[in-house]
Hints:
Layout: H1 2-10, H2 15-31, E1 48-50, E2 57-59, E3 62-67, E4 79-85, E5 90-95, E6 101-107, E7 110-115, E8 121-126, E9 131-134, E10 139-144, E11 150-156, E12 167-168, H3 169-175, H4 178-185, H5 189-192, E13 202-203, E14 227-228, E15 236-238, E16 241-246, E17 258-264, E18 269-274, E19 280-286, E20 288-295, E21 299-305, E22 309-313, E23 318-324, E24 329-335, E25 343-344, H6 345-350, H7 354-361, H8 365-370, E26 378-379
Antiparallel strand pairs: 1-22, 2-3, 3-4, 4-11, 5-10, 5-12, 5-13, 6-9, 6-11, 7-8, 7-10, 9-14, 15-16, 16-17, 17-24, 18-23, 18-25, 18-26, 19-22, 19-24, 20-21, 20-23
Bound molecules: manganese (II) ion (2 copies).
The site of one manganese (II) ion has 4 residues, from loops.
Amino acid sequence: MAEETKHLKTEGISRRSVFGAVALASAAASQANAAPAETKFEPLPSFKYDIENGTGWQGPAGSAKEATVAEFPISQSIAGVSMRLKPGAMRELHWHSLAAEWAYMLEGTCRGTVISPNGQAEIADFGPGDTWYFPRGHGHALQATSPNGCHFLLGFDNGHFSEFGTFSITDWIATAPPSVVARTLGIPVSEVAKFPKKEVYIGPGRMPPAAENLRNAELQPNQFSHKYRLDHQPPKVFPGGLEYIVSSKEFPLQTTLTAARMDLQPGALQELHWHPHADEWHYYVRGRARVGVFGSHGRTKTEEFGPGHVGFIQQGYGHYIEQVGDEPTEILILFNSGEYQAISLANWLGGNPSTLLEDNFSISQNIADQLPKKERGILAKG
Ligand code: MN
Ligand code: MN
C-alpha cells in the first residue's frame, strides 16, 4: 500500500516538484512520529448499533430508545427510534423542526393525526406492516388503539435529530405568556394555569373509539395521504427472498426517504451492489445476517446483525447481505433519498465487452462467458 501511495503522489507532477513532495512527505512523516503509511487510511468505522439494548426514555405510558449520531456516530443522515405505547397511551401533539418522520408498525395498532401547512388534516389507523411519513414540520400525534399497546420503528432523515428534543404542544403552552395563550385559545387565564406545567411527551390516554371525527367537520380531508401500506404492495420476487421498495414514486409525500423491507430465506445472499446517491440504514426485525462493506483503498468491514440491531452503509460503499441461521431474516431499510438508485455488480459486468473483463481480471474467455450479465437481486441458498 505504501508503494501505491508513493506512486499516486508522484503521478502527474514534475520531477522537480516530486523532490519537493518527497521532502514534504518525509517531514510530515517525522512530525507524525514516523507513523507507518498504512495508518494513513482510517479503518472503516463500526456500522452496527444495538438500539433495543439502549437505555432511552422510560415512562408509565410507554418507552423510546433511539440511535442518533450520539449513540451511533456513522449514522449522520438517519436517526432511528424504537417506540412502545401502552393501550390508549399517546405520543402527544408535536412537530419536528429538523427532520421528517417515517415509521413502520411492528406490533399492535395506533391512530395518527396530522395537520398539513395547507390546512388539510388527516386521521389514519395503522396496523402491522403499515408506514407513515410526516414531512418536516407537519404537526402530528399518535395513540395506541390495541389492547396490548403497540410497537413501531421510527426513522428520521437527519442523524443529528433526537426524538427527545421535539416541539411539544405542552412545552409550548407551559412556557408562552399565559395571557398570550389565553387570548389564542379563547379561554380564561385561570384555565390556562391548569394545563400541564411541563412536556407530557408520552402520556396516558383513554382508549379511543373505533372511529372518531375531527373537531372541525369542515376541514378538507388530506389530498396526499401520510399513510402507505408497505406490506400490501406486491414485492419484487427473487429466488432467495422478497423486497418491497417504497420510494416517492409509490408514496408521493415521502420525498426525502425510500423505505424497504427485505425478507431473506435461509442461505440467501443479496448480491454485491452499491447505491450511488444514498446512505442505507437497517433495522433487524427477525433473523440474522452478515453485512460486508467495501470502501476505497481496499478497506472492508464485516459485521453480524440480529433482532434489534441497526446498521448503516455509507453512500457509494459497496456491500452485500448474507443471511445467517435457519430462520428467515427480515430487515427494514431506509435510504436518505426519495428516489431509489442501485448498481449491481452483475449488471455492471453485463454492461462491458468480454475482452475488457478478460484483461481486467486476467481470465479466459471461457470464464468470462460464465459471469452474470444482469442484476441477480437476492440469490437462493447455494
Ligand atoms: Mn414525531
Ligand atoms: Mn444496498
